[in-house]
Amino acid sequence: VLFRSLKDLFSKIKSENWTPENLLNKIDAYLKDLPNRPGFTYKRNYKEHKKGDPKTSEIEKETLKMMQLRSAIQLFPQFQKRMKAAQRYDFDDMILWVLRAFENNRALLLSYQEQYLYFLVDEFQDTNGSQNEILKKLISYWENPNLFIVGDDDQSIYEFQGARLKNLTEYIQKYRKDISLIVLRDNYRSSQNILDLSHELVNYNKIRITNQLKDIGIDKHLAAQHPSFAHIQTMPTICKYQYQFHEIAGVVAQIEQMKQEGFPLNEIAVIYAKHHQSTDLIEFLKKKNIPFNIRRKINLLELKIITQIRGILQYLQSEINSPYSGENLLYKILYLPFWSIDVDNLARIAIFFAKNKRIKEYTWRDTITNPALLNQIGINDPEAILNAGTILKILIEAVTSLSLPHLIEQIFNRTGLVRWAAQHPERAWYIQVLYSFLDFVKSESSRNPHLNLSRLIEILQNMDRNKVSLELQKIAQTEEGVNLLTAHGSKGLEFQRVFIIDCTKKDWEPSTKGARYRFSLPDTITYSASEDEMEAQRRLFFVAMTRAKEQLIISYSSQSNDDKTLTQAVFIDELVQSGKIEVSEKALAQEQILEAQLILLSQNLKPKISSPNSAEIQEILSDFRLSASALTSYLSCPLSFFYQNILKLPSLHREAAIYGTAIHKSLEKLYVKMLSSKTKKFPSRKEFIADFEQEMNHASGFFSSQTFERYLKRGKTQLPTFYEKHLKNRPKTVKLEYKITNAEVEGVPVVGVIDKVEFLPNQKINLVDYKTGKYDAKHFKEASQKNPEGGKYWLQLLFYKLLFENYKNIDYEVISMEIAYTEPDKTGVFHNPKLTPSSKEVEDVRQLIKDTYQKIMNQEFYEGCNESYCTWCNFVKNQITPATFSQEVTESLDDLL
Questions:
Q1: 3-state secondary structure of 542
Q2: 339/322 Cα distance (integer angstroms)
Q3: I need a surface site. Which of 41, 85, 119, 764 has the fewest CB within 10 A?
Q4: Residue range 726-748, pLDDT digits in tens
Q5: Which CATH architecture group holds 237-291+478-602?
Q6: What global pTM score does this model have?
């Protein structure tokens, strides 16, 4: 989040030609004026406050935001130095080079002023600060320059509209005596009804040239002049549907009707705010065989086929680093379609390993090149598996003998990936993707001739981490197709009939989610009030409306497909308030609803695998014992549970989990040393941190060099404060890493490792579990009708209570369970929430354990959850191979034996 916020801020500083000194001065001016601003003073007498008194709490919040902004701005010079040292620059830098050259070299500026005598600036409303400064430099020689500016402030689709208008009005004021101001009111695109309604909407904006230059009297109410469309009496319509899929089905039904009537599909556009809103629409159009055109930028690195290639690259590098260390990836790689391996055969091998997990010499790498062992396992047609094993062996050897581009080419050809892509229905797209990735590798290799596979993987991981895309334009196009566009992408285009869909607050109004990645800028910098973002979205909606020539259909839904209430965008209300349009409620015929539901169901089917040999799985289950992490894993996704807890396919822990383990071991040492000392004193803080550093060094092989340093610094920064706060008044009669392997709850065998058992007076117990990461209250919510399993830590702690109390007839009562966070929240507080559950809560979890265990014994784990974030569901459904198949939800419980 911080990286993206800094990236956004630094880009704005450059594009607007701001200087850090000027920005800091404007922040000071803003803070000084806060007590005088309406939002920061009481509007009426309230308790001990009088009308006009400053709101201290609000001022403090805003001051904190400005201090964060100040700190970020002060990093900008250092960022530019780093860019220069790395010999990197961006487009904003290139514009600034020109500006700085004009500022510092008068002869150069004069030569360009002599060369260019006439200036035309189009789309002036989207000109940024640095571009505008270049223009001012070029025309500065003349008292009355030959300058022709074309722009429409109502079509500015960016923020800082106040600054944009300021630029425009400065020209008007400076050259007022000689300027000719021409308002183009004649519109040769839309009907008058569409223009009138659009005008009503944009008139809600305050930051408009009509308001800035009232003395001139600018009238921007457009008059329709197109001979074919100007006088069409068809009124725009607003349609309200119950569900989102009703809306999509309704829109597609109208398009289908237009197609049947012979209306040209390329004169129809469906406009939405964000690309994700087109997903269901595309599926519905495909089902109806309605051609469409769509153009959007895709991040190559997130495509399924590229994640599969990256999985192979990661495997090869792991095997180069240490033979057999890539075992955790091999099953998933062999599952990929271009090997043409029967997935039932892979399941047989996995079951064989699960049944013989104590035999260490069995490995996936050796097995897939061993015909005799494959025959023993029961693989009757092992050719595809043996072929894959041979190819992977060749590729491992090729890592050190071939250049990186040649290695990638070998992977494409030897694995059958190119052949598979060439036979795919979307072969042109897949071939483009493969060779775009190869071109990227070639480009990186040209830049760094010594680039190796390890460094390439690190580059790709850094790009993922920092949200840097490798962009590729995906075009689905046909001459006679419906045009699917974002509102941004529709600018400058026109169509006879336009649908604006999914007009809800969530997607059309400014979101707080987007604000997470931006620093809050004061109006002393932007010359725009807080409503600037909303006005920018309103202008965007205005642009979408004015793409229509003869017919405009606006629609929204009152409920999402999962029954969540949706609120219509404020622009809908504003259009209705104009009195020129009403909302029409649309109801689909029952057969239309059923057809739409079938289309949705075909999209959202839960991934399911065929049941392997039931008797063999039952044999594996015969010694299964339920842990808190296994319980959570099953409740989260039964299919993930099957792969992780039954087949126990190899997987590596994430770096965050390894960091957490290092902290756990350091805390264990801390208490062991205290217990073994005569004085029962804890070791010093310095010794505790030294133990942590030692544990991190032991685990350093599981980190990249960059992340190791980052996690080490994080621990050394936060653990000293945790040490001081956590050890105050803690009981010293404790047991650490308390392993329970043979307890039963309602006949269910349960196991677990409890970080710390604190013995209290009167045979009472407090259980403690340590967590890294930030405290989140939702993890501690008790079970409810909406969430019958409760928060994951609530469930874990109650599981531990039952686990402990049902172990060896222990005569102790667990009266409380506690999570101790080793890291503070953003306010610096170290949380240690403690639960004292009711008897009902305990009984609910007891029953949940019993019910879940029964489902596991019934082998009810071959169907997934279908959540977008579930790695195993994505793997089975889409063959997406992530960097790791370890599950954060279960790793965070840290209770594995």
A1: helix
A2: 25
A3: 85
A4: 888 889 999 999 999 889 999 99
A5: 3-Layer(aba) Sandwich (3.40)
A6: 0.71
